[in-house]
Amino acid sequence: MATLTDIANLAGVSISTVSRVLNKDETLSVTEDTRHRILTIADEIGYTKHKTINNSKKEKYQVAIIQWVSEEHELDDIYYYNIRLGIEKRAYELDYEMLRFFNDIPSSLGEEVVGVLCIGKFSREQIAKLERLKKTLVFVDSDTLNQGHPCVTTDFENSVQSALCYLKEQGCNNIGLLIGQEKTTDATEIISDPRLRSYRNYCMEKGIYDPLFILTGDFTVQSGYELLASKIKSGATLPDAYFAASDSLAIGALRALQENGIKVPDDIQIISFNDTTLAKQVYPPLSSVTVYTEEMGRTAMDILNKQFLAPRKIPTLTKLGTKLTLRNSTK
Question: What's a Pfam family this protein contains (predicted)?
Answer without folding.
Answer: LacI
